[in-house]
Sequence to fold (306 residues):
Amino acid sequence: MSNVRLPVAVCAAVAEVLHGSHDSLNALFETAGAPGPPPDLAHHSKWKTWLQRIGNDPEVDSLAVLGNIIEEFMDLPPLPSSDALGNILGIENPDPLEEYKKKRERIVNVLEEHGFRYFRGGRVITIGQPEPIDVTPNMGKQREGIKPSTLDDLLKIIIRGLPRAMQPLIHRRKGFQSLSFSSEYDVQDLLHALLRPWISDIRPEEFTPSYAGSNTRMDFLLPAHNLVIETKRVRDKAHAPKVGDELIIDIEHYRKHPNADHLWCVIYDPELYITNPGGMISDLEGRRSTPDGTVNVKVVIVGASA
Fold:
């Protein structure tokens, strides 16, 4: 574990760019790996205090958690908005992209003033340390051919990048049909498409062995890796607490499958209805064994992009 104290100025600058409800930001911090419970403070001081706690906890990789918290802000600029309404009303409408650039530059400058540097993909390092390799595919000729070193690395990049991959499909050019990703099948199809350039044998919708008198279809089987990917989309607040129960049943099905040694559960929660993502991950992840079989479970909860 590599804990580095986070300077107060860094914590304050990051807190300035975090926007959302208490519930949504609690979920962001918990998913990023911040130790809980959340500080019982007002909005303007809560996030700075929580960031300071991260930097003071010897059991936490503070730079990794910081990178996870700011990744979406740093890597995903807002779409330019039309100023037509402002012109009609005679009101100057500031460009959100310009405002974003100023805030992002402030984060970069504050980090570097205190000896840190941010790299795409949520990676914060101490200046002077070896720069991380960018394993994102198709990012230019100088990076062509570089691949993640493990399947786990590849899956993390693709799954955590789902919201960014959705953006150009949600906001398509005028006259072309946009995708909404409002159903679980939309998320499955996008994930399948992103995996295909990397993995040659992907088998969707294979039946699992019976459990409690019923069987089900798995989303994807990667037979060369004995790995299954199961996707869930949180529909609404009422559905959020049921997702864990659905996955418990799925885990029992997959545990009996002869080619399912590993199960990745991908939960897409665009409205951040899951109030305790860290607790759900803790409850579901790990090695599940009975006389019928064993499966190693990994859970990734993905929120909406900005």
Summary: The longest helix spans residues 96-113. The beta strands are 116-119, 123-126, 203-204, 220-222, 227-233, 262-269, 286-290, 293-303. Residues 82-91, 135-146, 209-215 have pLDDT under 50 and may be disordered.
